[in-house]
């Protein structure tokens, strides 16, 4: 019988399936992620680790856990895992692609629309009683239909966002690491820029002060990928000085932002708490895929949803 450490309780019945498979399941029951020393102490005793984006999995941790036969990330992004270190140690890594694509794309588009039409600010004006009456020039936002959307990272989620944008008659430009519209041109031509690429050393601070200066002053940046792809200080300055018109962020750097962070005081910024995949059906399907990866890894079989370094 193998032992599996699951770093948070998961929605759905996938953990029941894991337990029913006969493996011993150790679940971290608190809402906060296990602190590093607890993560190491619990993973040290296990054959499989079902972890998530809040758990940094690096070489020293893997060295401390010689029994580990598989690392299954509950999420599609794997920037929390040192993939090269896992490969060097022969530990396969899996993730949860596809099942979260639509929920994540829905959220990206919801952020785009909300920032364009200033929904948080205008709703707050109603709630606080500041709204007096309808006015011809009151609460004007940005057009969405017929404008240009630049998608950086046209993979599963980026393409799903593109499909939604076409329903709004938007012109869609895509930049990938190898093809599509060159990033500088995409930034200059887009009314909305939406990020859907993984966080890697090459993409950290891809959107820096120079990139933001290339964007239209009327443009809105949407980030549902990973916070550090954007230079937070540069974005904060760009919003405060009007270099761009707005930003809608599901992910930030740091995450969460402290309430006193100047980014939160910037005009037309909307920040939500990393909810891209946060629907019950999506989270349950992610748990199924993660458990499938664990069971395959423990059986010595190829992972159904593998990630390569
Ligand atoms: N906010 C949230 O809750 C969620 C965030 N995510 C993030 O979204 C990312 C994308 O997920 P998927 O679409 O499933 O991944 P994917 O692997 O299908 O797509 C990523 C795309 O980015 C491209 N890319 C890589 N480097 C690039 C670069 N330098 N410039 C332009 N394009 C580049 C790749 O070629 C690929 O087409 C994940 O890595 C994760 O970080 C994913 C799910 C939920
Ligand atoms: O951020 C979430 C993920 O699945 O990646």
Automatic annotation (TrEMBL):
Residues 5-307 form the D-isomer specific 2-hydroxyacid dehydrogenase catalytic domain. CDD domains: GDH. Keywords: NAD, Oxidoreductase. Residues 109-276 form the D-isomer specific 2-hydroxyacid dehydrogenase NAD-binding domain. InterPro entries: D-isomer_2-hydroxyacid_DH, D-isomer_2_OHA_DH_cat_dom, D-isomer_DH_CS, D-isomer_DH_NAD-bd, NAD(P)-bd_dom_sf. One of its GO terms (molecular function) is NAD binding. It is an enzyme of class 1 (oxidoreductase). Pfam families: 2-Hacid_dh (PF00389), 2-Hacid_dh_C (PF02826). The keyword Cell membrane does not apply. Its EC number is 1.1.1.26. One of its GO terms (cellular component) is cytosol. Belongs to the D-isomer specific 2-hydroxyacid dehydrogenase family. This is Glyoxylate reductase.
């Amino acid at each position: 019988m193998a032992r599996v450490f699951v770093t948070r309780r998961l929605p759905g019945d996938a953990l029941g399936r894991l337990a029913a498979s006969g493996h011993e399941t150790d679940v971290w029951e608190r809402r906060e992620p296990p602190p590093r020393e607890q993560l190491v102490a619990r993973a040290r005793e296990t054959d499989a680790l079902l972890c998530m984006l809040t758990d940094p999995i690096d070489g020293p941790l893997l060295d401390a856990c010689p029994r580990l036969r598989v690392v299954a990330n509950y999420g599609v992004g794997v920037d929390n895992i040192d993939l090269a270190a896992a490969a060097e140690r022969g530990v396969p890594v899996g993730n949860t692609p596809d099942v979260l694509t639509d929920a994540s794309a829905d959220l990206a588009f919801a952020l785009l629309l909300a920032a364009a039409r200033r929904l948080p600010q205008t709703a707050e004006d109603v709630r606080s009683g500041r709204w007096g009456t309808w006015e011809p020039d009151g609460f004007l936002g940005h057009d969405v239909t017929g404008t240009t959307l630049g998608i950086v990272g046209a993979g599963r989620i980026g393409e799903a966002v593109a499909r939604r944008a076409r329903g709004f008659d938007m012109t869609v430009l895509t930049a990938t690491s190898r093809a599509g519209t060159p990033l500088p041109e995409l930034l200059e031509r887009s009314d909305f820029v939406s990020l859907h690429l993984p966080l890697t050393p090459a993409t950290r601070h891809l959107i820096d002060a120079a990139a933001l200066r290339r964007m239209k002053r009327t443009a809105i940046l949407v980030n549902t990928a990973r916070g550090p792809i954007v230079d937070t200080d540069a974005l904060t300055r760009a919003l405060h000085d009007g270099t761009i018109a707005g930003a809608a962020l599901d992910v930030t750097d740091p995450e969460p932002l402290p309430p006193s962070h100047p980014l939160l005081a910037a005009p037309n910024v909307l920040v939500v708490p990393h909810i891209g995949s946060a629907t019950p059906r999506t989270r349950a399907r992610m748990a199924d895929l993660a458990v499938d990866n664990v069971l395959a890894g423990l059986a010595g079989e190829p992972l159904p949803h593998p990630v390569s370094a």
